[in-house]
Amino acid sequence: MAFWNRRRSIDAMLAPHDGPALKKTLGWPHLMALGVGAIVGTGILTLIGVGAGLAGPAVMISFALAGLVCACAALAYAELSTMMPAAGSAYTYSYAVLGELIAWIVGWSLILEYSLVVSAVAVGWSGYATGFLAGMGVELPAMLAAGPHVEGGLINLPAVFIIAVVTGLLLLGTRESATLNAVLVVIKIVALIAFVAIALPAFDAANFTPFMPNGFGAPALPFAEQITGQPVVQTGVMAAAAIIFFAFYGFDAISTAAEETKRPERDLAIGIVGSMVVCTALYLIVAAAAIGARPVATFAESPEPLALILREMGQGTAAQWIAVSAVVALPTVLLAFLFGQSRIFLGMARDGLLPRKLAKVSVRGVPAVVTIFTAIVVAGLAGVMRLDELASLANAGTLAAFAAVGVCLIVLRIRDPHRPRVFKAPLWWLVGAITIIGCIVFFFSLRASTQMWFVIWNAIGLVVYFGWSAWNSRLAKGEETAG
C-alpha cells in the first residue's frame, strides 16, 4: 500500500500496546467537567467583546451558527471516539479512515490548535488577572503585563506564570488534576449565572438596535489580501462566528482522554454531547444578558467585557468577583488543552510519526516529557502574541480537524456500516455534511493572513513528514499490520 494511503487497522489500534499505559481513572462526571472547563473560558469571558465588535448585537446569531457546526462535530466525535477509544482524537480517526498522510496533516493541525488555544487562554487570563490586581491597588509594570505589540510591553509575565502552574498540576496525575478541574468548573458556572442574574434587571431592548450593523458578511476569497494587494477587513456575522467558534470547541479534548476513561463506550458520548448542550445554552443566555445590559460599543474592545459591563452598571463588587472567578477558573481551559495536546503528541509518537521518546509515560501515568515540552512552547507564544491573533490561527487548525472528523464519519458509515457503534450520530449524512461545509465556510471567513499562516504551517509539516515521519512510522517499518 502506498505510504500516503496506508491506514491503521482499527482492531490493531485497540489492541494492547508496548510500554507503560495511561491509567483508567476518569468517569463521565470528570469528562463533563473537562469538556465544560475547556469550552467555557476565554470565548465567553473575553472573545464576546471581539465578536460583538465585528457583528454588533447580531453576535447572537454568530454564537448560534458556531454552536450548530460544533454540535454536529460533537456528534461525529461522540460516534468515532466510542468506536476508537484511543489517545489521539481526530488524528487517530483520520489514520484509521483516511490514511497516514491525511492523518499527519490533521495531527499537525491539532498541534497548532492546542498550542495556540493554551497561549490564547493564558493571554485572556492575564487580562483578567491584571484587572483584578489593579482593583486591589497592585499595578504591574507595563513591560511585564503585555507582549511587545502593546506600547511599552515586553513580555506577558502573568500568561507565562499561569501556564507554569497548570503544567505542574498536570504532572501530579490525571485524576488529581481532573478533580480540581471539576471544582473550578463549578466556580466558573456559578460566576456566569451570577452575571446573568445581575445584568438582566438592566436589560434594554434598545441595545439590540441596529441588530446587524455590519451585515451578515461573506467568506473572503482565499488569500484575497495577497492577490489584490489591499487589506481585507472581515466584519459581520460570519466573521464574528469564525472567531467565536473558538468559544465552543474544547469538547474534542474529551476524546483525547479516551484511554484514561473507565467506561469509554458510555462515558465519552455523555461527556462530549452533554458538555456541548450545557455550554451552548449558557453562552446564548450570557450573550443576551451582556448586550441587553450595555450597548455593544461600551465593551467591544475590552479584554474583560463582563467585568466591565458590571462596573458600568455601578456593580463594582460584583465586577471584582467576576474577575476573581475568571482568574481562578480560566485555568480549567489551560488544563484541558494542555492535557489534550500531550495526548495528541503521545499518539503520534507511539505511531512513529514523531520521535518515540516523546511517548514516555511517567510512574504517575502522565506523559511528562511532552507535557513539559508543550508548556515551554505555548508559554513563549503567550508571552509575546496578541489574543485575537492566537485565537484566529488556533481556529484554523481546529476547523481542519473538525472537517476531517466529519469526513471520517461519512466514509466509515459507507465503508464499514456493520462495525459495532455504541453511539450513533443521528442523520449521520447531514451531521457530517454540516460539519464539513460549516468548517470550510468558517475557514474562509478568517482573516487572509490567518489562512496564509495556516498554509505555511502545514507546508512545514509536509516537509517534516516527507523528510522523516513517512519513513519512520510503525506502518512504514512493518511493525503493525495496515488496515
Automatic annotation (TrEMBL):
<feature type="transmembrane region" description="Helical">
    <location>
        <begin position="180"/>
        <end position="203"/>
    </location>
</feature>
<feature type="transmembrane region" description="Helical">
    <location>
        <begin position="31"/>
        <end position="52"/>
    </location>
</feature>
<feature type="transmembrane region" description="Helical">
    <location>
        <begin position="272"/>
        <end position="293"/>
    </location>
</feature>
<dbReference type="Pfam" id="PF13520">
    <property type="entry name" value="AA_permease_2"/>
</dbReference>
<feature type="transmembrane region" description="Helical">
    <location>
        <begin position="361"/>
        <end position="384"/>
    </location>
</feature>
<keyword id="KW-0472">Membrane</keyword>
<protein>
    <submittedName>
        <fullName>Amino acid transporter</fullName>
    </submittedName>
</protein>
<dbReference type="InterPro" id="IPR002293">
    <property type="entry name" value="AA/rel_permease1"/>
</dbReference>
<keyword id="KW-0813">Transport</keyword>
<feature type="transmembrane region" description="Helical">
    <location>
        <begin position="153"/>
        <end position="173"/>
    </location>
</feature>
<feature type="transmembrane region" description="Helical">
    <location>
        <begin position="390"/>
        <end position="414"/>
    </location>
</feature>
<feature type="transmembrane region" description="Helical">
    <location>
        <begin position="90"/>
        <end position="111"/>
    </location>
</feature>
<feature type="transmembrane region" description="Helical">
    <location>
        <begin position="452"/>
        <end position="471"/>
    </location>
</feature>
<feature type="transmembrane region" description="Helical">
    <location>
        <begin position="232"/>
        <end position="251"/>
    </location>
</feature>
<feature type="transmembrane region" description="Helical">
    <location>
        <begin position="426"/>
        <end position="446"/>
    </location>
</feature>
<feature type="transmembrane region" description="Helical">
    <location>
        <begin position="58"/>
        <end position="78"/>
    </location>
</feature>
<keyword id="KW-0812">Transmembrane</keyword>
<keyword id="KW-1133">Transmembrane helix</keyword>
<feature type="transmembrane region" description="Helical">
    <location>
        <begin position="318"/>
        <end position="340"/>
    </location>
</feature>
